[in-house]
Amino acid sequence: MKVTFILQDQTARVVDAEPGWSLMEVAVNNSIPGIDADCGGAAACATCHVYVDSQWDEQTGERTPLEQAMLDNSFEVRDNSRLSCQIDVTEDLDGMVVEVADS
Amino acid sequence: MSVETVVIVGAGQAGYQTAASLRQKGFTGTITLVNGEAGLPYQRPPLSKAYLLGKLDASRLPLRQGSWYTDQRVELIHDEAVSVDRHDGVVVLRSGTRLRYDHLVLATGARNRTLEIPGSDVPEVIGMRSQADADRLAPLVVPGTRVVVVGAGFIGLEFASVAAHRGASVHVLDLADRPMARAVSEPVSRFFQDRHQSWGVTFGFGEGVTRIKETEGHVTAVVTTTGRVLPADLVVYGIGVLPNAEIAREAGLRVDNGIVVNADLLTSDPDISAIGDAACFPCAQLGYAPTRLESVQNAADQARHVAARLIGATADGYGGLAWFWSDQGDLKLQIAGLADGYEDIVELPVADEDTQKFVLCFRGDELASVETVNLPGEHMSARRLLSGASALPTPSDARSPGFDLTAWGRAIREPASTA
User: Fold this and answer.
1) CATH number, residue A63
2) How many domains are there within chain A?
3) Fold of the domain built from segment(s) B114-239
4) What is the DSSP string of B163-174?
5) Contact state of A73 with B381 under an 8 Å Cβ cutoff
6) Is there a contact between B333 and B195 (Cβ–Cβ < 8 Å)?
7) ipTM of predicted complex
8) Distance (Å, rounded) from C-alpha B335 to C-alpha B160?
9) Which CATH number describes the domain made up of B330-414?
Protein backbone atom coordinates (compact mmCIF):
# COMPACT_ATOMS: atom_id res chain seq x y z
CA MET A 1 0.00 0.00 0.00
CA LYS A 2 1.03 3.61 -0.56
CA VAL A 3 1.01 6.80 1.48
CA THR A 4 1.76 10.25 0.11
CA PHE A 5 3.61 12.83 2.18
CA ILE A 6 3.40 16.46 1.08
CA LEU A 7 6.69 17.97 2.21
CA GLN A 8 7.23 21.45 3.61
CA ASP A 9 8.36 22.63 0.15
CA GLN A 10 5.03 21.30 -1.20
CA THR A 11 6.59 18.47 -3.20
CA ALA A 12 4.93 15.08 -2.89
CA ARG A 13 6.66 11.85 -1.87
CA VAL A 14 4.82 8.58 -2.42
CA VAL A 15 6.15 5.77 -0.26
CA ASP A 16 5.32 2.14 0.46
CA ALA A 17 3.67 1.56 3.81
CA GLU A 18 3.15 -1.68 5.64
CA PRO A 19 0.25 -2.28 8.04
CA GLY A 20 1.36 -2.75 11.62
CA TRP A 21 3.71 0.21 11.69
CA SER A 22 2.83 3.71 12.82
CA LEU A 23 2.63 6.47 10.23
CA MET A 24 5.61 8.11 11.97
CA GLU A 25 7.66 4.94 11.48
CA VAL A 26 6.68 4.83 7.82
CA ALA A 27 7.87 8.43 7.51
CA VAL A 28 11.22 7.90 9.21
CA ASN A 29 11.87 4.64 7.37
CA ASN A 30 11.44 6.62 4.17
CA SER A 31 13.54 9.59 5.28
CA ILE A 32 10.65 12.07 5.11
CA PRO A 33 12.17 15.43 6.06
CA GLY A 34 10.40 17.28 8.87
CA ILE A 35 9.44 14.10 10.74
CA ASP A 36 12.17 13.98 13.35
CA ALA A 37 10.39 11.79 15.91
CA ASP A 38 12.92 12.48 18.65
CA CYS A 39 11.04 10.54 21.31
CA GLY A 40 10.57 7.47 19.14
CA GLY A 41 6.80 7.37 19.38
CA ALA A 42 6.20 8.06 23.07
CA ALA A 43 3.98 11.06 22.23
CA ALA A 44 6.44 13.15 24.21
CA CYS A 45 7.98 15.52 21.69
CA ALA A 46 5.50 16.60 18.95
CA THR A 47 8.19 16.37 16.24
CA CYS A 48 6.11 14.09 14.01
CA HIS A 49 3.24 16.52 13.45
CA VAL A 50 1.25 16.10 10.22
CA TYR A 51 -1.97 17.40 8.68
CA VAL A 52 -4.28 14.62 7.51
CA ASP A 53 -6.12 15.24 4.26
CA SER A 54 -9.83 15.65 5.15
CA GLN A 55 -10.77 12.64 3.01
CA TRP A 56 -8.93 10.39 5.47
CA ASP A 57 -10.33 11.78 8.75
CA GLU A 58 -12.51 8.83 9.51
CA GLN A 59 -10.02 6.07 8.73
CA THR A 60 -7.29 7.59 10.90
CA GLY A 61 -9.56 7.71 13.97
CA GLU A 62 -9.67 10.20 16.80
CA ARG A 63 -6.79 11.95 18.50
CA THR A 64 -5.81 10.18 21.73
CA PRO A 65 -6.24 12.33 24.87
CA LEU A 66 -2.46 12.52 25.29
CA GLU A 67 -2.04 13.55 21.67
CA GLN A 68 -4.82 16.12 22.03
CA ALA A 69 -3.07 17.72 24.99
CA MET A 70 0.24 17.83 23.12
CA LEU A 71 -1.36 19.37 20.06
CA ASP A 72 -3.25 21.97 22.12
CA ASN A 73 0.11 23.45 22.93
CA SER A 74 2.13 22.83 19.79
CA PHE A 75 2.95 25.18 16.95
CA GLU A 76 1.01 25.60 13.68
CA VAL A 77 -1.86 23.41 14.84
CA ARG A 78 -4.87 23.01 12.54
CA ASP A 79 -8.16 21.13 12.82
CA ASN A 80 -6.61 18.23 10.91
CA SER A 81 -3.38 18.08 12.94
CA ARG A 82 -2.22 14.68 14.18
CA LEU A 83 0.92 13.26 15.71
CA SER A 84 1.84 10.62 13.19
CA CYS A 85 3.24 8.35 15.92
CA GLN A 86 -0.34 7.90 17.10
CA ILE A 87 -1.71 6.76 13.74
CA ASP A 88 -1.52 3.02 13.10
CA VAL A 89 -1.17 2.12 9.45
CA THR A 90 -3.97 -0.18 8.30
CA GLU A 91 -5.11 -1.35 4.85
CA ASP A 92 -7.85 1.30 5.07
CA LEU A 93 -5.23 4.00 4.77
CA ASP A 94 -3.95 2.84 1.37
CA GLY A 95 -3.57 5.95 -0.76
CA MET A 96 -3.84 8.43 2.06
CA VAL A 97 -2.27 11.86 1.83
CA VAL A 98 -0.73 13.77 4.73
CA GLU A 99 1.12 17.04 4.83
CA VAL A 100 4.21 17.43 7.02
CA ALA A 101 3.70 20.30 9.47
CA ASP A 102 6.15 23.15 9.68
CA SER A 103 7.11 22.71 13.31
CA MET B 1 39.11 25.09 4.45
CA SER B 2 35.63 23.85 3.78
CA VAL B 3 34.53 20.63 5.41
CA GLU B 4 34.19 17.75 2.92
CA THR B 5 34.67 14.74 5.17
CA VAL B 6 32.91 14.30 8.50
CA VAL B 7 33.66 11.35 10.76
CA ILE B 8 31.26 10.72 13.64
CA VAL B 9 32.43 8.44 16.43
CA GLY B 10 29.51 6.86 18.23
CA ALA B 11 26.20 5.85 16.66
CA GLY B 12 23.73 6.53 19.44
CA GLN B 13 21.09 9.23 19.26
CA ALA B 14 23.66 12.03 18.98
CA GLY B 15 25.83 10.41 16.33
CA TYR B 16 22.89 9.29 14.22
CA GLN B 17 21.23 12.71 14.43
CA THR B 18 24.42 14.49 13.35
CA ALA B 19 24.48 12.42 10.16
CA ALA B 20 20.75 12.87 9.58
CA SER B 21 20.83 16.64 10.13
CA LEU B 22 23.89 17.12 7.93
CA ARG B 23 22.06 15.46 5.03
CA GLN B 24 18.79 17.24 5.81
CA LYS B 25 20.61 20.56 5.65
CA GLY B 26 22.14 19.70 2.31
CA PHE B 27 25.66 18.59 3.21
CA THR B 28 27.01 16.72 0.18
CA GLY B 29 30.38 15.53 1.47
CA THR B 30 31.35 12.19 2.98
CA ILE B 31 29.81 11.09 6.28
CA THR B 32 31.18 8.11 8.16
CA LEU B 33 29.43 6.89 11.30
CA VAL B 34 31.48 4.60 13.51
CA ASN B 35 29.27 2.24 15.50
CA GLY B 36 30.89 0.38 18.39
CA GLU B 37 27.79 -1.76 18.92
CA ALA B 38 26.41 -4.52 16.72
CA GLY B 39 23.45 -3.89 14.42
CA LEU B 40 21.79 -0.67 13.37
CA PRO B 41 21.88 2.42 15.59
CA TYR B 42 18.87 2.15 17.88
CA GLN B 43 16.75 4.01 20.41
CA ARG B 44 17.70 3.50 24.03
CA PRO B 45 14.70 4.99 25.88
CA PRO B 46 12.31 2.08 25.13
CA LEU B 47 14.78 -0.48 26.51
CA SER B 48 13.71 0.09 30.10
CA LYS B 49 10.10 0.75 29.12
CA ALA B 50 8.04 -0.61 26.20
CA TYR B 51 10.74 -2.97 24.90
CA LEU B 52 11.21 -4.65 28.26
CA LEU B 53 7.43 -4.96 28.64
CA GLY B 54 7.31 -6.71 25.27
CA LYS B 55 5.12 -3.95 23.80
CA LEU B 56 7.75 -2.95 21.27
CA ASP B 57 9.61 -5.64 19.38
CA ALA B 58 13.23 -5.52 18.31
CA SER B 59 12.39 -4.61 14.70
CA ARG B 60 11.14 -1.22 15.92
CA LEU B 61 14.18 -0.26 17.97
CA PRO B 62 16.44 0.97 15.15
CA LEU B 63 16.44 4.75 14.69
CA ARG B 64 16.30 4.17 10.93
CA GLN B 65 16.20 1.04 8.78
CA GLY B 66 19.32 -0.17 6.99
CA SER B 67 18.27 1.28 3.63
CA TRP B 68 18.30 4.78 5.11
CA TYR B 69 22.09 4.69 5.46
CA THR B 70 22.46 3.72 1.81
CA ASP B 71 19.89 6.27 0.61
CA GLN B 72 21.46 9.05 2.62
CA ARG B 73 25.05 8.06 1.76
CA VAL B 74 25.99 7.62 5.40
CA GLU B 75 28.71 5.02 5.69
CA LEU B 76 28.02 2.94 8.79
CA ILE B 77 31.13 1.17 10.06
CA HIS B 78 30.98 -1.46 12.79
CA ASP B 79 34.23 -0.94 14.58
CA GLU B 80 35.63 0.82 17.60
CA ALA B 81 37.57 4.06 17.46
CA VAL B 82 40.74 3.64 19.50
CA SER B 83 42.67 6.86 18.92
CA VAL B 84 42.71 10.19 17.18
CA ASP B 85 45.76 11.48 15.33
CA ARG B 86 45.00 15.18 15.39
CA HIS B 87 48.13 16.13 13.50
CA ASP B 88 47.07 14.18 10.41
CA GLY B 89 43.32 14.47 11.07
CA VAL B 90 42.81 10.71 11.31
CA VAL B 91 40.70 8.44 13.50
CA VAL B 92 42.24 5.01 14.03
CA LEU B 93 39.87 2.06 14.46
CA ARG B 94 40.39 -1.23 16.30
CA SER B 95 40.68 -3.07 12.97
CA GLY B 96 43.53 -0.79 11.95
CA THR B 97 41.40 1.20 9.50
CA ARG B 98 42.37 4.87 9.40
CA LEU B 99 39.61 7.38 8.68
CA ARG B 100 40.71 10.81 7.54
CA TYR B 101 38.48 13.70 8.61
CA ASP B 102 38.07 17.40 7.98
CA HIS B 103 35.83 17.52 10.99
CA LEU B 104 35.43 14.94 13.73
CA VAL B 105 32.34 14.66 15.93
CA LEU B 106 32.81 12.75 19.16
CA ALA B 107 29.43 11.34 20.14
CA THR B 108 30.92 8.60 22.26
CA GLY B 109 28.16 8.53 24.88
CA ALA B 110 28.53 7.12 28.33
CA ARG B 111 28.79 3.76 30.01
CA ASN B 112 27.23 2.55 33.23
CA ARG B 113 29.03 2.97 36.49
CA THR B 114 29.34 -0.58 37.68
CA LEU B 115 28.77 -2.10 41.09
CA GLU B 116 32.26 -2.76 42.39
CA ILE B 117 31.39 -5.03 45.28
CA PRO B 118 31.95 -8.68 46.14
CA GLY B 119 29.61 -10.90 44.14
CA SER B 120 28.80 -8.34 41.45
CA ASP B 121 30.36 -10.56 38.76
CA VAL B 122 27.46 -13.02 38.92
CA PRO B 123 25.42 -13.11 35.65
CA GLU B 124 22.17 -12.06 37.36
CA VAL B 125 23.69 -8.72 38.32
CA ILE B 126 22.82 -6.52 35.38
CA GLY B 127 23.18 -2.85 34.52
CA MET B 128 20.73 -1.46 31.98
CA ARG B 129 22.29 0.32 29.02
CA SER B 130 22.18 -1.64 25.78
CA GLN B 131 19.71 -3.75 23.87
CA ALA B 132 21.84 -6.74 24.87
CA ASP B 133 21.33 -5.84 28.55
CA ALA B 134 17.56 -5.63 28.04
CA ASP B 135 17.58 -8.96 26.19
CA ARG B 136 19.42 -10.60 29.09
CA LEU B 137 17.00 -9.08 31.60
CA ALA B 138 13.66 -9.75 29.95
CA PRO B 139 13.50 -13.54 30.49
CA LEU B 140 14.61 -13.15 34.12
CA VAL B 141 11.71 -10.87 35.07
CA VAL B 142 8.88 -13.32 35.67
CA PRO B 143 6.18 -13.61 38.34
CA GLY B 144 7.74 -14.35 41.70
CA THR B 145 11.26 -13.19 40.83
CA ARG B 146 12.77 -11.31 43.75
CA VAL B 147 14.48 -8.25 42.32
CA VAL B 148 16.68 -5.75 44.10
CA VAL B 149 17.10 -2.53 42.14
CA VAL B 150 20.15 -0.50 43.09
CA GLY B 151 19.65 3.18 42.31
CA ALA B 152 16.30 5.00 42.28
CA GLY B 153 16.99 7.15 39.22
CA PHE B 154 14.97 7.16 35.99
CA ILE B 155 16.32 3.83 34.76
CA GLY B 156 16.03 2.08 38.11
CA LEU B 157 12.46 3.24 38.59
CA GLU B 158 11.39 2.52 35.03
CA PHE B 159 12.74 -0.97 35.43
CA ALA B 160 11.09 -1.32 38.87
CA SER B 161 7.69 -0.41 37.44
CA VAL B 162 8.07 -2.91 34.59
CA ALA B 163 9.21 -5.67 36.94
CA ALA B 164 6.37 -4.99 39.40
CA HIS B 165 3.83 -5.07 36.58
CA ARG B 166 5.26 -8.39 35.44
CA GLY B 167 4.65 -9.87 38.86
CA ALA B 168 8.14 -9.69 40.33
CA SER B 169 8.67 -8.58 43.90
CA VAL B 170 10.77 -5.43 43.75
CA HIS B 171 12.87 -3.66 46.35
CA VAL B 172 14.66 -0.44 45.41
CA LEU B 173 17.71 0.89 47.26
CA ASP B 174 19.27 4.32 46.99
CA LEU B 175 21.87 6.19 49.02
CA ALA B 176 19.84 9.40 48.65
CA ASP B 177 16.82 10.08 50.81
CA ARG B 178 14.28 10.05 47.99
CA PRO B 179 13.81 8.72 44.44
CA MET B 180 15.18 10.65 41.45
CA ALA B 181 16.78 13.07 43.91
CA ARG B 182 19.15 14.52 41.32
CA ALA B 183 16.46 15.06 38.70
CA VAL B 184 13.21 16.23 40.27
CA SER B 185 11.82 18.25 43.16
CA GLU B 186 10.86 16.66 46.45
CA PRO B 187 7.06 16.60 45.87
CA VAL B 188 7.52 14.76 42.57
CA SER B 189 9.91 12.30 44.24
CA ARG B 190 7.35 11.59 46.96
CA PHE B 191 4.54 11.25 44.43
CA PHE B 192 6.50 8.58 42.53
CA GLN B 193 7.47 6.84 45.74
CA ASP B 194 3.79 6.59 46.73
CA ARG B 195 2.72 5.37 43.33
CA HIS B 196 5.48 2.73 43.18
CA GLN B 197 4.49 1.56 46.65
CA SER B 198 0.91 1.16 45.43
CA TRP B 199 2.29 -1.20 42.76
CA GLY B 200 3.98 -3.24 45.47
CA VAL B 201 7.48 -1.81 45.15
CA THR B 202 9.33 -1.30 48.45
CA PHE B 203 12.13 1.19 49.07
CA GLY B 204 15.22 1.58 51.21
CA PHE B 205 16.63 5.10 51.24
CA GLY B 206 19.98 6.13 52.66
CA GLU B 207 20.93 2.56 51.89
CA GLY B 208 23.39 1.07 49.44
CA VAL B 209 24.75 -2.37 48.71
CA THR B 210 27.93 -3.81 50.19
CA ARG B 211 27.85 -7.39 48.96
CA ILE B 212 25.93 -9.80 46.79
CA LYS B 213 25.57 -13.32 48.13
CA GLU B 214 25.64 -16.16 45.66
CA THR B 215 25.39 -19.91 45.56
CA GLU B 216 26.85 -21.81 42.61
CA GLY B 217 26.96 -18.69 40.50
CA HIS B 218 23.41 -17.54 41.24
CA VAL B 219 22.35 -14.52 43.28
CA THR B 220 20.71 -15.43 46.58
CA ALA B 221 20.70 -12.15 48.52
CA VAL B 222 21.90 -8.58 48.74
CA VAL B 223 23.63 -7.25 51.85
CA THR B 224 22.99 -3.55 52.38
CA THR B 225 25.03 -0.79 54.01
CA THR B 226 22.65 -0.86 56.98
CA GLY B 227 23.31 -4.57 57.46
CA ARG B 228 20.03 -5.85 56.09
CA VAL B 229 20.04 -9.06 54.06
CA LEU B 230 17.50 -8.95 51.24
CA PRO B 231 16.77 -12.27 49.51
CA ALA B 232 17.13 -11.82 45.75
CA ASP B 233 17.23 -13.71 42.47
CA LEU B 234 18.17 -10.72 40.35
CA VAL B 235 20.03 -7.45 40.94
CA VAL B 236 19.57 -4.57 38.50
CA TYR B 237 21.60 -1.43 38.96
CA GLY B 238 21.35 2.08 37.59
CA ILE B 239 23.82 4.11 39.60
CA GLY B 240 24.84 6.70 37.07
CA VAL B 241 27.15 6.75 34.09
CA LEU B 242 30.69 7.72 33.16
CA PRO B 243 31.29 9.72 29.98
CA ASN B 244 33.32 7.91 27.33
CA ALA B 245 36.02 10.55 27.18
CA GLU B 246 39.19 8.43 27.12
CA ILE B 247 39.76 8.78 23.39
CA ALA B 248 39.56 12.57 23.76
CA ARG B 249 41.87 12.67 26.76
CA GLU B 250 44.46 10.53 25.02
CA ALA B 251 44.29 12.86 22.04
CA GLY B 252 45.17 15.74 24.35
CA LEU B 253 41.73 17.35 24.40
CA ARG B 254 40.43 18.91 27.58
CA VAL B 255 38.40 16.49 29.67
CA ASP B 256 36.64 17.37 32.92
CA ASN B 257 33.39 15.53 33.65
CA GLY B 258 33.25 14.68 29.96
CA ILE B 259 34.82 16.15 26.86
CA VAL B 260 34.93 19.89 27.46
CA VAL B 261 33.40 22.01 24.70
CA ASN B 262 32.67 25.70 24.24
CA ALA B 263 29.29 27.32 23.60
CA ASP B 264 29.56 26.19 19.98
CA LEU B 265 30.17 22.58 21.09
CA LEU B 266 33.77 22.66 19.84
CA THR B 267 36.50 20.96 21.85
CA SER B 268 39.87 22.60 22.44
CA ASP B 269 40.61 21.52 18.83
CA PRO B 270 38.54 23.55 16.32
CA ASP B 271 38.33 20.50 14.01
CA ILE B 272 36.68 18.37 16.69
CA SER B 273 33.20 18.72 18.20
CA ALA B 274 31.78 16.73 21.09
CA ILE B 275 28.08 16.25 21.78
CA GLY B 276 25.56 14.26 23.79
CA ASP B 277 26.16 12.31 26.99
CA ALA B 278 29.95 12.55 26.57
CA ALA B 279 30.17 16.34 26.29
CA CYS B 280 30.48 18.92 29.06
CA PHE B 281 29.15 22.21 27.70
CA PRO B 282 28.42 25.70 29.05
CA CYS B 283 24.67 25.47 29.70
CA ALA B 284 22.76 28.66 28.93
CA GLN B 285 19.96 27.72 31.35
CA LEU B 286 22.43 27.37 34.21
CA GLY B 287 24.32 30.63 33.68
CA TYR B 288 26.80 28.85 31.36
CA ALA B 289 28.02 26.54 34.11
CA PRO B 290 29.86 23.47 32.74
CA THR B 291 27.11 20.87 32.41
CA ARG B 292 26.79 17.35 31.13
CA LEU B 293 23.29 16.08 30.36
CA GLU B 294 22.15 12.56 29.60
CA SER B 295 19.05 12.76 27.46
CA VAL B 296 17.61 12.26 24.00
CA GLN B 297 16.81 15.97 23.71
CA ASN B 298 20.35 16.99 24.54
CA ALA B 299 21.84 14.47 22.12
CA ALA B 300 19.52 15.39 19.25
CA ASP B 301 19.58 19.17 19.69
CA GLN B 302 23.37 19.29 20.07
CA ALA B 303 23.69 17.15 16.95
CA ARG B 304 21.48 19.58 15.02
CA HIS B 305 23.54 22.49 16.25
CA VAL B 306 26.82 20.95 15.12
CA ALA B 307 25.34 19.99 11.74
CA ALA B 308 24.12 23.56 11.23
CA ARG B 309 27.53 24.95 12.16
CA LEU B 310 29.33 22.57 9.80
CA ILE B 311 27.28 23.78 6.85
CA GLY B 312 27.79 27.37 7.97
CA ALA B 313 24.18 28.03 8.93
CA THR B 314 24.48 29.09 12.54
CA ALA B 315 25.97 32.00 14.42
CA ASP B 316 24.69 31.72 17.99
CA GLY B 317 25.98 29.28 20.56
CA TYR B 318 24.03 26.18 21.57
CA GLY B 319 21.06 27.07 23.74
CA GLY B 320 18.59 24.18 23.44
CA LEU B 321 16.08 23.91 26.25
CA ALA B 322 16.64 20.73 28.24
CA TRP B 323 13.64 18.45 28.53
CA PHE B 324 13.21 14.89 29.72
CA TRP B 325 10.60 12.20 30.05
CA SER B 326 10.21 8.97 31.94
CA ASP B 327 7.39 6.44 31.65
CA GLN B 328 6.70 4.49 34.83
CA GLY B 329 3.58 2.35 34.94
CA ASP B 330 0.67 4.58 33.93
CA LEU B 331 2.65 7.73 34.74
CA LYS B 332 4.37 9.92 32.17
CA LEU B 333 6.82 12.23 33.92
CA GLN B 334 7.94 15.18 31.80
CA ILE B 335 10.41 17.85 32.80
CA ALA B 336 11.05 21.09 30.95
CA GLY B 337 14.17 22.97 32.05
CA LEU B 338 16.67 22.12 34.77
CA ALA B 339 15.75 22.22 38.47
CA ASP B 340 19.41 22.27 39.62
CA GLY B 341 19.74 24.31 42.78
CA TYR B 342 16.06 25.20 42.96
CA GLU B 343 15.11 27.27 46.00
CA ASP B 344 11.37 27.57 45.76
CA ILE B 345 8.57 25.47 44.35
CA VAL B 346 4.94 26.12 43.58
CA GLU B 347 2.56 23.20 43.18
CA LEU B 348 -0.36 23.87 40.90
CA PRO B 349 -3.73 22.14 41.25
CA VAL B 350 -4.50 19.08 39.10
CA ALA B 351 -7.75 17.35 38.20
CA ASP B 352 -6.70 13.90 39.43
CA GLU B 353 -4.28 13.89 42.34
CA ASP B 354 -3.66 10.13 42.06
CA THR B 355 -2.26 10.27 38.56
CA GLN B 356 -1.21 13.87 37.91
CA LYS B 357 1.32 16.31 39.30
CA PHE B 358 2.25 19.86 38.34
CA VAL B 359 5.25 21.55 40.00
CA LEU B 360 7.12 24.72 39.10
CA CYS B 361 10.71 25.06 40.39
CA PHE B 362 12.32 28.45 40.84
CA ARG B 363 15.88 29.65 41.32
CA GLY B 364 15.32 32.93 43.09
CA ASP B 365 12.46 34.50 41.16
CA GLU B 366 13.44 32.74 37.95
CA LEU B 367 11.36 29.82 36.65
CA ALA B 368 13.93 27.02 36.34
CA SER B 369 11.86 24.00 35.45
CA VAL B 370 8.37 22.63 35.17
CA GLU B 371 7.68 19.05 36.24
CA THR B 372 4.45 17.40 35.17
CA VAL B 373 2.96 13.95 35.41
CA ASN B 374 0.32 12.95 32.87
CA LEU B 375 -0.08 16.58 31.77
CA PRO B 376 1.55 16.60 28.32
CA GLY B 377 -0.18 19.80 27.26
CA GLU B 378 1.15 21.69 30.26
CA HIS B 379 4.59 20.25 29.51
CA MET B 380 4.44 21.56 25.96
CA SER B 381 3.38 25.01 27.09
CA ALA B 382 6.19 25.02 29.66
CA ARG B 383 8.66 24.21 26.89
CA ARG B 384 7.33 27.02 24.74
CA LEU B 385 7.47 29.42 27.65
CA LEU B 386 10.99 28.46 28.75
CA SER B 387 12.31 28.50 25.17
CA GLY B 388 11.00 31.97 24.46
CA ALA B 389 12.39 35.33 25.37
CA SER B 390 9.13 36.41 26.97
CA ALA B 391 8.51 37.24 30.61
CA LEU B 392 8.31 34.19 32.85
CA PRO B 393 6.02 33.93 35.86
CA THR B 394 7.60 34.54 39.29
CA PRO B 395 6.72 32.49 42.36
CA SER B 396 4.21 35.15 43.43
CA ASP B 397 2.58 35.11 39.98
CA ALA B 398 2.33 31.34 40.20
CA ARG B 399 0.83 31.53 43.71
CA SER B 400 -1.87 34.00 42.73
CA PRO B 401 -5.35 32.44 42.67
CA GLY B 402 -6.38 30.94 39.36
CA PHE B 403 -2.85 31.05 37.86
CA ASP B 404 -2.78 29.10 34.58
CA LEU B 405 0.61 28.41 32.98
CA THR B 406 -0.83 27.77 29.52
CA ALA B 407 -2.93 30.94 29.62
CA TRP B 408 0.14 32.88 30.79
CA GLY B 409 2.09 31.67 27.78
CA ARG B 410 -0.79 32.40 25.45
CA ALA B 411 -1.29 35.92 26.84
CA ILE B 412 2.39 36.63 26.18
CA ARG B 413 2.20 35.24 22.63
CA GLU B 414 -1.12 36.81 21.69
CA PRO B 415 -1.51 40.17 23.43
CA ALA B 416 -5.14 41.13 24.13
CA SER B 417 -4.95 44.01 21.63
CA THR B 418 -6.32 41.68 18.92
CA ALA B 419 -9.83 41.97 20.46
Assistant:
1) 3.10.20.30
2) 1
3) FAD/NAD(P)-binding domain (3.50.50)
4) HHHTT-EEEEEE
5) yes
6) no
7) 0.79
8) 20
9) 3.30.390.30
Chain B residue at shortest CA distance from A31: B68
Average pLDDT (B274-303) is: 97
Could you tell me which of A91, A5, A3 has the C-alpha nearest to residue A48?
A5
**Where along chain B do its domains lie?**
5-111+242-310, 114-239, 330-414
* Partner B contacted by A1 (CB < 8 A): no
What does the pLDDT look like over B31-46, one tens digit per residue?
Answer: 999 999 999 999 999 9
Instruction: Tell me which chain A residue has its CA closest to the CA of residue B67.
Output: A29
| A 39-58 residues inside an 8 A Cβ radius of B | 39-40, 42-46
* Span A38-93, pLDDT tens digits: 888 878 888 899 999 888 888 888 898 888 888 887 888 899 999 999 999 999 99
Q: Following CA atoms A18, A38, B12, B249 in sequence, which dihedral angle do they give, to the nearest 10 degrees? A: 170
pLDDT of residue A47: 87
Rounded to two decimals, the pTM is 0.92
Average pLDDT, chain B: 94
Same CATH topology for B5-111+242-310 and B114-239?
yes
B chain contacts of residue A28, beta-carbon cutoff 8 Å: 63-64, 68
**Mutation for testing the A interface, residue in B380, B384, B404, B408 having most A CBs under 10 Å:** B380
What does the pLDDT average to over A16-28?
Answer: 92
Please choose, from the candidates B34, B29, B30, the residue with its C-alpha nearest in 3D space to the C-alpha of residue B14: B34
Q: Which CATH class is domain B5-111+242-310?
A: alpha beta
Answer whether A76 touches B (CB < 8 Å). Answer: no
pLDDT at B100: 98
